[in-house]
Structures are given as structure tokens and as C-alpha cells.
Design brief:
Blueprint: H1 5-78, E1 110-111, E2 149-153, E3 171-176, E4 179-185, E5 189-195, E6 201-211, E7 213-220, E8 225-231, E9 236-243, E10 246-255, E11 266-274, E12 277-282, E13 285-291, E14 299-307, E15 314-325
Antiparallel strand pairs: 1-5, 2-15, 3-4, 4-15, 5-14, 6-11, 6-15, 7-8, 7-14, 8-9, 9-10, 11-12, 12-13
């Protein structure tokens, strides 16, 4: 069989051309790949940036979550506290303070209540319904008379220690007849005092009662717990402990011949504190004594008190010749 070489060459060339034609698409793909290369790089870069930003967002959210959990944990750890603090009140229930020998700071007066009934064994009543006067113990030497005067006021003029009050509708105070006049109206009573810088003391004052009961304020415990010696115009006295506005008689109303009777009579009453013992006096005569609770933290005070009569809302009393003595330290 004879094969024409030219025909073979032509066929071979045609195949080569076909092969070349088949390679052309490869070149087109390479050109397309070359064109798509920058686009893929841009997408990769953007994807990387978004990934980085997403990681930062997640990190930020995680940090905020940790801070929130820490705050909640701290709050739960402290508990739900009201934040209230205990505040010490040394003079809160009293006013018209007086310190020796300089003027004392004053504060708003407190309202006191009429004595509350207390269940206790009562001695046989006299015809007047008042326990008979207990015999006064015999007088002893007055050692306190040699004590230095710590404070003294004869109310000859207006003093910062005892202010004039006219602005209150329920109580007032003023200087009249050479003394200090106190009045309550539409309230059960009033007491005010200032600190007394001595543990042991003698405290006396002249008292003239027109209406109600009046006397001395001389010891304080907690802000609303204090001791008072009161007398009335009928010759009776009472030692009482006011606890949060409620009167607790320590020596209930007792008649005494040592007290002058009748409205307008002037009686000098006094209290002496010696250690944990209180001794009560009227016009130089010892009325009674009372032992304070052992170890009680009581602060000595100097003050005045006025109560309306039981069941009433008005009272009027006059004070003069206030004297406080204390032993030398």
C-alpha cells in the first residue's frame, strides 16, 4: 500500500493545528485565572479583616460579660444592706443645754408623756388617795457644801444657757420676776438639758408651780432615756425614769411634809449623786435615796422639766437660783 507523504504531512499538520486549537482554551483559562486572581485576593483580604473584627467584637462582648458578672457577684456578696448607720445622740431629746462654766449647746426640746401606770405593790392609801409620807432618814453632815461650784444661774438676765422661746405654739420660756418661766400648751410636757462634766454632783434649784408638775432633769442613758425629780403643788414628789417618752416611776408620787403646799409656793429641790446612789432633797431635808443599776452607763446632765397635770395639756412653772457643785477631781 502506497501512502502519499504529502497527505501524511497534511494530516499531521491538521492534527497539530487541532492540538493547538485545543490548547487555546487553556490559555483562555489561564487568562481568566490571571484576571480573577486580584479579585480573589481582595475577597480573601476582606474576609480576613471581617474575621479579625469579629474576633475583637467577641472579645469585647466577653469582657463586658465578665465585668457584669463581677458586679453582680460583688452585690450578692455584700447582701442587700440599707446602708443605715448607727449615729450617737448625746443631747437629741433635750434642749437649752448648759455646760460648766461656759454656755452649753442647746437642742430642740422633747415632748414627755404623763406617767404611765405601773403594776406594783402599793402601800395603804391615806384619805387623800396618796401614800403617806415615809419618814425621812436623819440628816447627816453635808459634805457637798464644801464642793466647788461648777455652774450657777440666778436668771437675772437673758442667757444663752437658757434661751427665751416665743416661736413655738405648744411651749414657751421667758425671764420673769427674776427667774425663768416655762409654759406648755397643747402638749403633755417638756424637758431639756445639757451635759454636766462630773460624775458625782449636787444639783439644786428653786421651783414655783402654778399648774402641773416641775423639777430637775439630771441623768441620761440612751437618747430617749433619762431621770427626773418632779414635785407638784400639793406636797408630793416623784423620782422617775423616762424611757422613750413613757414614764416609769422609780419612787412613785409620795407626800412629804418637807415640801410647801399650795400654788405659788417656792420649794428648793435637789439631787445628789454619789457613785451609783441618788439622794433626793427638799428644802434642805432628805426625802429618799435610790440605787442606780450597777454598771449603768449614765451621763450626768443639768436641765429642767415641766409636765402638764395628768389628763391635761397645759403647765406653768418658774425656776430660780440654780446651783451645781461637784467634788474636786
Amino acid at each position: 500500500m502506497i501512502i502519499d507523504k504529502r497527505a501524511r504531512r497534511q494530516a499531521t499538520g491538521d492534527r497539530a493545528q487541532g492540538t493547538g486549537d485545543r490548547r487555546k482554551p487553556t490559555g483562555n483559562r489561564g487568562q481568566a485565572a490571571a484576571k480573577s486572581g486580584p479579585r480573589n485576593s481582595l475577597l480573601l483580604a476582606l474576609s480576613s479583616q471581617f474575621s479579625i473584627r469579629y474576633r475583637w467584637v467577641r472579645l469585647l462582648l466577653l469582657t463586658l460579660a465578665i465585668i457584669a458578672l463581677s458586679a453582680i457577684g460583688a452585690t450578692l456578696g455584700r447582701g442587700f444592706s440599707s446602708g443605715a448607720a448607727v449615729v450617737g445622740q448625746a443631747v437629741e431629746p433635750t434642749s437649752a443645754a448648759m455646760a460648766p462654766p461656759a454656755a452649753l449647746p442647746t437642742s430642740a426640746p422633747i415632748t414627755t408623756s404623763a406617767p404611765a401606770p405601773v403594776a406594783a405593790a402599793v402601800p395603804a392609801l391615806s384619805s387623800a388617795g396618796i401614800p403617806p409620807a415615809a419618814p425621812a432618814p436623819p440628816s447627816t453632815a453635808h459634805a457637798w457644801e464644801g464642793w466647788p461650784v461648777l455652774a450657777e444661774d440666778h436668771f437675772d438676765g437673758i442667757s444663752e444657757r437658757w434661751p427665751e422661746i416665743h416661736s413655738s405654739p405648744s411651749w414657751s420660756s421667758s425671764y420673769q420676776d427674776g427667774g425663768y418661766l416655762m409654759q406648755v400648751d397643747s402638749r403633755p410636757g417638756i424637758s431639756y438639758s445639757g451635759p454636766l462634766g462630773a460624775h458625782d454632783f449636787w444639783y439644786s434649784a428653786d421651783v414655783r408651780i402654778t399648774r402641773g408638775q416641775a423639777g430637775l432633769f439630771f441623768l441620761i442613758g440612751r437618747p430617749n432615756d433619762f431621770y427626773r425629780l418632779l414635785i407638784d403643788a400639793d406636797g408630793h414628789y416623784q423620782l422617775e425614769w423616762q424611757q422613750v417618752g413613757v414614764s416609769q416611776p422609780l419612787i412613785a408620787w409620795t407626800a412629804s411634809d418637807a415640801l410647801l403646799r399650795g400654788a405659788g409656793q417656792v420649794n428648793q429641790i435637789a439631787v445628789r449623786r454619789s457613785g451609783d446612789e441618788l439622794i433626793l432633797y427638799a428644802n434642805g431635808t432628805q426625802l429618799a435615796s435610790y440605787d442606780l443599776p450597777a454598771g449603768s452607763a449614765l451621763e450626768s446632765r443639768i436641765g429642767l422639766a415641766l409636765d402638764a397635770p395628768e389628763g391635761g395639756r397645759t403647765g406653768l412653772a418658774w425656776f430660780d437660783n440654780l446651783v451645781v457643785r461637784a467634788p474636786k477631781r
